[in-house]
Structure formats: structure tokens, C-alpha cells
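hiii so my PI (J.) wants the whole complex modelled not just the main chain, which honestly fair. so below is everything: two entries, each one labled with what it is. i double checked the lines twice but i was tired so who knows lol
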Amino acid sequence: MTVKYFATIRTYTGESERRFDDAPATLRELLAALAARYGNLFRNAAFAGDALNPEIIILVNGRNVLYLRGLDTPLAQEDEVSIFPMVAGG
Amino acid sequence: MFGWTGTTLRVDLTKGTITREATDLELAHDYLGARGMGGKIMIDEVAPDTDALSPANKLIFSPGPLTGTFAPSAGRFEVVTKAPLNNVIAGSNSGGAFGPELKYAGYDALIIEGKAAKPVYLWIKNDEVEIRDASAVWGHTTPDTTDLVRAETDEDAKVACIGPAGEHLSPIANIMNEMHRAAGRSGVGAVMGSKNLKAIAVFGTGAVTVADPDRFKAAVMKARKLIQAHPVGGTGLKAYGTDVLVNILNQTGALPTRNYQDGYFPTADKTGGESLAAKQLVRPKGCFSCIISCGRVTKVDNPAYAGYGEGPEYESAWAFGADCGIDDLDAITKANFLCNEHGIDTISLGSTIACAMELFELGVITAKDTDGVQLTFGNVPAMVEMTRKACTGEGFGAKLAQGSYRLAESYGHPELSMTCKKQETPAYDPRGVQGIGLNYATNNRGGDHVRGYTIAIEVLQNGAVMDPRVTEGKADLDITFQNLTGALDSAGACLFSTFGIGAGELAEMLSAVTGVEYSVDEFMKIGERIWNQERLWNLKQGYTTDDDALPKRLLTEPIKTGPAKGEVNHLDKMLPEYYQLRGWDEKGVPTKAKLKELSLA
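here's the output for the full assembly
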């Protein structure tokens, strides 16, 4: 599984992507593992309490997890997860 | 007189006359200023069958009632004229500092009419207005023109001007102000060129007076806090600029690639705002009264593409990047510099080069047509060279400077032009994001994103969310954004202020400035009035429901790769509901009842 980081999230991780040989079962587990790896800046960006932070955008294979199952979105080894802060432009 | 100055300046370049007239404040209450008021003036004064490049067309520079105040990120103006690209009302919105200065000089609007016998520029210093000889600046780039005109007028003058593209009457030429900010779309620069008007320099020492200073101050402070607290308005846009969108659109599968042949570009990250911030960015920069600072002062050291200037914005980085199959951000930045220096629209030109690349790869055109250049997707030097040629009008560049519709049609393949109403569509693939497709199809100036930015909800999760893949609810979403933007543009505000504030905050600031009470409903109704006004003009130009369309490719050719693989746009599921919710008949014509409701009949 590949996890890609963008914009300010990339400054929290210090890398633009990371591959995982064993995909966590759910997004919740993935984000917890990433928070443990990258620290509080990442944790605060990802979570609001136990919930998903409304100011983070997470795509699994291009689909916003808000249209999937949120933190309970199941993950598979072939998935690509993209993590963004809120961004905009035009 | 609050918010509005009460005076409109009219310059007839044929007669050489300069007159001042009272701004019609009743109309101003209903249309605010900028896009709305400019459009109303144009409709009242320009016959629908006027040739856009004839002296009978008019060119209107119009700030809004908030312009020139310290309302946050609200210092904008609009250039309104009949568009040479596609005959619509070209309302091209720009930041910079030109709009506020026009207010300080005393004017709600500047109406240019006729045609000068020889190149001229306009010098406005409060109530002293002169038409001056511009033979010494004709032919110069926009930065050089700005410097030369300032040297002859005032070093603090704010200058709006055209570059060589406007002089050559390219229907995708723009008007630049403060060297780097563009009134970019629909060919407004060609109208200025057709009038032999090279530049307008303005310097004002007046002020914009406010009806209720205490109320305004409170409203401004609230708006500032909301924008600063927003992750985008307060942080994201300053750090990464608009080009930060490259990655989220690509990862969504909606980054148009190689002339919309695909919706995913594997190496897009090299062209995004993160890469720009790491390499080319010198510093962020804001327009007048802006607390967001999305502008990018940039520099390219690579000798092949060396330069200094501003940008690229997301749209420009996409047009010269993914849409041309290119991931070299130095080259993309250089192409953007060239466009700004020569005064040509980056979205339309980048998309036109992408169209030419597809024509080349299909064998419709060959190196004989392209001055010997192998114009294939991904050919970086070829992209920059074609940009240069289009900017100067040299060789094949003269054809590129006509925009993609005229180019593709001239070779018998108009279907390869990715345009709506002949204007190039921007950097969001409607196959991956349904609602933006409806906006492109119904937009009153053709391919356009800023007047119906559903992306904020469909992709960017700004305040609310809607699934980009579904069509349900998108008609209503589009209408809301289109109406909101009509009012917001006309007030003089920046679209990006909506990353923090909404119609409530804008209506409150507007009420405090003008002394006219605007509720949220009334504010939105103004936007709806303006949208319908523009629609009526388009109907007079012969546009019909058949033109509320997308390029056939987006309806029938699924995205080939990436997250949105297999998707097409389902415009037919959204358009009838859009007409119904607009109060239009099945042919897209506003009903009498709707026009009466909006005081348009």
C-alpha cells in the first residue's frame, strides 16, 4: 500500500510518500500508525478527538473517504491513500 | 455618497473628448459595480450586433463599492466589453491595485469608446485626464510599458496595459495591471488594442467614504478573523499558492491531461504548488487589501528558461503542464512569464497548444505547419517556443493566438478544441467532477471556473461536501455558486475570500460601506439578476440551448487511467433541472415571470 502526503502534511511527515508492506485493516488504524510515526503535528491534523479532523482530506484510490466509510474505510494492500490538508485555488 | 464615488468617466478616443457624468445610483444599488454595473452599462450602450473589434464596442473598467476600502481581499475590478473570442459579455476580473486607484481618482467606472487615430495612452490624475501619444511604448511588453508610462506620468501610478498580443488583436489577449495581474479571459486585450489604447495610468489622492465607519470596522474585523482562521484563506494559499491544486485534482482523477485525452498525469507532482514553493518561489504576494497573499513572486535560474516575474497559478501550471503532457516546472513558469509579458491568456493559450499537439500527433498538421517544430505532447522546448511564437504572433504562433476553436476549426477538427462557447475550459475534468461540467456548459462566458466554483464543495471540502461523481443536487449547487459569484464579483471582492467568509459577511460589509441595507437574500438576488442579464445578452448573440454543451469528448470518451478511469460527464441528467431551478423554459430562456421578479422586464 502506498500513502502519499501533500502540502503541509508533507512538512509534518518529512517525506512525500511511504510504502507499507502490510496494509492496516482500516483507515483508522492507518492514521493511528502514521500519528505514532510522525508525531503530534500529524496526529492533530488527522484527528479531532477520536473523529476524523474535518480539515483533512483523505482519498482512497481517488475517492474521498467521506463518501466511503470514513475512519472505518477498509484498506487493502493495493490501495493508494492520499492525504491533504484543506487546500484551494482556482 | 458612500462606497460609490458618484462619478463615471467617459473617454471617446475617436473624438478625443473626456466627460464626467453622475453614476446612476439607483442602478448601482441593483447591480453594485464591477461585473454587474459594467455589464448593465454595456448592454444599455452597445448594440448586440456590434463587431467586438470595431470602434462601436466599448471597454469598461469598473471597480466595486468595496474596492478601495479596507474590506479584506476586496480590491478588485472588472473589465467589461463584448468579447472578441465569443461575443459574450467579457467580464474579466482582476486584482492588483488598479481598481482601488481608480476609485481614489474619483471614479466608479471608466468607459472607453471609439478608436484613436494612432496609439495613445490615458493618464488619469484625479480630475485631470489626458489622452497622450503612445507611439514610444507601442510594441513593448507589459512590464516595459508599465515602466515607460510611469516615467512619463508618476512613479506611483497604477498602470493597466496591453502587450504585443493585444496590439495584434489576438482574441485571447488580456489586459495586465501592475505588470503581473491579469484581466485574463475572453480577449479583452484585443478590444483595447483595436482602440489603439496601449495603457491607462491612474493616480488618485481621494478616498472611498463609508456610511457607517463603526459598523464597517466591526464587519471587517470579523471577516478578517474568519479568513485568517480558515486553513485555506489563512494558511494554505499563502504557503503554496493556487498551484497546490495540481495534486488534489490529479489524485481525484480530474486533472485534464494531454488535451483532455485523460484525467490523470502520473508526474503531476513535479508541477504542483509544493514543487513551486521548493524551487521557483521567491515570496508570496497579495493584491490591494489582501490578507491571503496567494500570488507567487517567482524566479527561474535554469538558463534555458531563466526569468523573473509572478506565477504560475494553478490554471496556468495545468495548461502548460499536464494538458501539454509536460512536467518541467521551470519551463511552465517561463511560458507563464512570456504570457504575462506579452499580454495573453494562459488558460486559453496553454489549452490551444495542447490542441495543436493533438492535431500534430494525429497527423492533421505536420512540421510544415508548425515552422519545423515537432509539436508532440511532452516536448518541453516545443511548448515554450510555441508560447513565444503565439505571444509575438510569429509564424504558426499567429494561428495559436486565435485560440483553440479557430485553430482546430481551420483544420477541420473543431471537436478537438476543448471549449464551451469557444472559450477554453479550465483545469478540472468534468468527467471526474460532474457539477463543474454543468457550470462549464451553462457559464455565461463559456469555459470558465471562477463564476461557478463547485470544486470548493465537490473536491475541496470547503464548508460542505458533495460527491463529485454524482449528478444529484449539482444543478442547485451550480446556481448557488453562480449567483453568489455574480454578486461577489460586483461588490469588488475576491473569490478566495469565500475561503473564510460567505454572503452574510459580504452583505454586512456592503451595507456598512454603502448605507444601503443588503440582506443575504438581496445580495444573492443581485447575483441572480446579473446572471440573467448576461444570459439575455447571450441569447441575443444567437446562443441557444445547443450551446449549453460540453466538448463531445467529455460526454463520450471515458477517462483512460487513474482514479476516475471509465467516467464521463452526464450533463443530460443535470441540464433540465438547472433550467427549471433557474426559472427558465425548456430551451433555456428566462421566463417573463423570472425577468419580472429580477426587475429585468
